[in-house]
Amino acid sequence: MRRIFALVCLLALWTGLAHAAPPASYFDAPKDETPLAGGARMITIDTPKGKFRVWTKRVGNNPKIKVLLLHGGPGATHEYFEVFDSFFPGQGIEYYYYDQLGSAYSDQPKDDSLWDLSRFADEVEQVRQALHLDKDNFYLLGHSAGGAIAIEYALKYQQHLKGLIISDMMDSGPAYDAYAHQVLMPAMDQAKLAKLKKLEAAGKTEDPDYMGILMPEHYEKHILRMPAAQWPDPVLRAFAHLNQQVYVSMQGPSELGIGSKMAKWDRSKDLSKITVPTLVIGATYDTMDPKYMASMAKKLPQGRFLLCPNGSHLAMYDDQQAYFTGLIKFIKDVDAGKAMR
Fold first, then answer.
1. Catalytic residue chosen out of the listed positions 167, 172, 313, 318
2. Given this model, what pLDDT does residue 94 score?
3. For residues 163 and 277, is the Cβ–Cβ distance under 8 A?
């Protein structure tokens, strides 16, 4: 009977997360924002290579809780975060879509020197200032490569944060690469893996045969656990708009492991310096090692770990109940001043 009661309570909570109506004031626009833009805004940023503009869009209005979403890729777009529309408004959470420099809705310069995690962290700080986010309301959520940017941001600017969420990202490029080579690749069909590596070595990652193997052997198992034909429109649009220059410059040409600039990135010894409340989100079938991510939370003075047992890299889609229930609880707990552990 207790189990049945607990299940009923959980289902009631889940239904409430998805469908609760926000207060009327939630739709009010800030005084310095024109209603004509619907919350969208281009922000000018300074870089070592000059000034550029990046795109942001506010949804909701909550002076106490404002979440800035950092997409992955690298070089993807905010579009796959559109699933948050089904959950955050019902909880009265204000949030911001944001295309980083180089992504589809923002300026897209061609200089490879701009694709650097530290520079992206400085970009986030300029966006924060322009959006008037501060330590009393600012939550930063970084997913995948956006999680690496979020770590870099917190190590440099955590005095401005109220809370941090590292979603589906390890704190070390070498550790991620080791997991790919020691766990994920050995589990694949070895003949197909050999063909993938041969195509990569020949620089033929755009060959239809490459994606024809990678999709069922890797993407449908570790990126989003459903047939590709059923992938949601926001995910498809984000993939279609991926900036390959940014992606290859930082991640490398392959989704199997990591290369290029992020290959040597490692903040595993620095994570304990992040003292703000932090949620680390992992998933059983992720491209990132969930056990490693659980250990990350233990390094953090105010760390908490959330496992999405049925999820993969896009757990906000294939394990929504675990992802959004845990994420929203973390945000509400931080807002209420509750301890993380």
1. 313
2. 97
3. yes
For the chain, the domain total comes to 1
Kindly report whether the global pTM for this prediction surpasses the value 0.90.
Answer: yes
Peptide linkage before 74 cis (omega within 30 of 0): yes
The residue from 103, 106, 144, 260 that is catalytic is 144
**Average pLDDT of the residues of the chain:** 92
11 found inside a domain: yes
125 Cβ contact list (under 8 Å, min separation 6): 153, 156, 157, 160
CA angle 58, 64, 65 (to 5 degrees): 50
Is residue 284 within 8 A of residue 308, CB to CB? The reply is yes
Average pLDDT over residues 61-77: 97
Please indicate, yes or no, if residue 210 is contained in any of the structural domains: no
Domain-located, residue 55: yes
Lowest mean pLDDT among 23-27, 30-34, 277-281: 30-34
Is 313 labeled as catalytic in the residue annotation? Answer: yes
Annotated catalytic, 144? yes
Range of the domain at 311: 2-176+262-336
Active-site residue, from 99, 168, 286, 289: 286
Of 129-143, 252-266, 307-321, the range with the lowest mean pLDDT is 252-266
Task: Give alpha helix (H) positions in the chain.
Answer: 2-19, 117-131, 145-157, 173-179, 190-201, 208-214, 233-240, 244-250, 290-299, 315-318, 320-336
Mean pLDDT, residues 152-171: 98
182 occurs within a structural domain: no
Please state which of the ranges 7-11, 123-127, 202-206 shows the lowest mean pLDDT.
7-11
pLDDT-derived band at 311 (thresholds 50, 70, 90) equals very high
Of 251, 303, 247, give the one whose Cα is nearest residue 272: 303
Q: What is the CATH number of the domain that holds 42?
A: 3.40.50.1820
